[in-house]
């Protein structure tokens, strides 16, 4: 009979090779609890984690309920707004006629602006033409005076000593006519002075500006550039009130100096510094 052989055995896990008592009393864990006592702390921890899981699941359920309530309310509001838009008329809603009216109003505003610009340009052109006409008229008057004086001087020369013997005084010879360069410089000087005066003299009132130019011309043409108030009065355009107003403006700007001599008031030209 063949010798007996040890039957083959499948190696088992350590737990299967003995009881929990042997495992608990093994040398590897000398302080292990007796019997199944080591399961108690593990089960206690498992219970705590299970309660935390349950609390989190309940929180998710509450969140789902809240979202469901919000979705239902929001959907209801959207539905009501949609129905309101479909069933309510909006009389103030822009229509094609509204856009056409807005376009027409914009065109009318542009036309008004263009018309105002044209009127302004026409007023400026008329003002320039008026100034040019005044300057031309003043130049013609000066030429006429010079021609008359020249004729008078010639007649006096022809008569010779007869007039001298008769004791007739000679007329003063007027200043010669200014050259184009001198006239241009005079106009620039007058424009510079007027630009330094208040707004009403700079173009707010065209008549007042023209009168101021006439007064400045009169002072510059006067002997020693000194005049009296009466010398500048030329009714009906330049009455005493207008002349006095212009002279006050020139005195305040220190273009003209006011002096009193022998009971009369004189105005001396100083010009701008």
Automatic annotation (TrEMBL):
Q: What is its main location?
A: nucleus
A Pfam family the protein falls into? DASH_Dam1
Query: How is this protein named in the record?
Result: DASH complex subunit DAM1
Q: Mind giving the lineage of the organism this protein is from? A: Eukaryota, Fungi, Dikarya, Basidiomycota, Agaricomycotina
Q: Which organism is it from?
A: Agaricus bisporus var. burnettii (strain JB137-S8 / ATCC MYA-4627 / FGSC 10392)
Family statement: Belongs to the DASH complex DAM1 family.
Tell me where in or outside the cell this protein is found: Chromosome, Centromere, Kinetochore; Cytoplasm, Cytoskeleton, Spindle; Nucleus
Annotated coiled-coil positions are: 99-130
Any GO CC annotation of this UniProt entry: mitotic spindle polar microtubule
Q: Which UniProt keywords apply?
A: Centromere, Chromosome, Chromosome partition, Coiled coil, Cytoplasm, Cytoskeleton, Kinetochore, Microtubule, Nucleus
Alphabetical list of InterPro entries matching this protein: DASH_Dam1
Q: Which domain of life is it from?
A: Eukaryota
- Which GO biological process annotations does it have? mitotic sister chromatid biorientation
